[in-house]
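As agreed, record copied across for absentees:
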Amino acid sequence: MKIVLDQDKCVSSGQCVMAAPDVFDQREEDGVAVLLDDSPSADGAEDVEHAAAVCPAVAIRVER
C-alpha cells in the first residue's frame, strides 16, 4: 500500500489524523495534513482507507 497526500487540496479538517494517527498529522501553523508514513503496514490499512474516505477534500489517494 502506498499513500499519496495532496497538500494543496487539504482543507485542514483533521479527519485523517483522527482516522489514522500513526500515518497522518497536521502542521502546527496551518493545520494542513502531513504524511508520517507513505507505506504503512497492512495492519493499518483499514484506518488509512477510512481516512481517505472521510477526507472532505479528497486529498488522500491509496494505491495498492
Observations:
- The first strand starts at residue 2 and ends at 5.
- The radius of gyration is 10 Å.
- The mean pLDDT is 96.
- Residues 45-54 form the longest helix (10 residues).
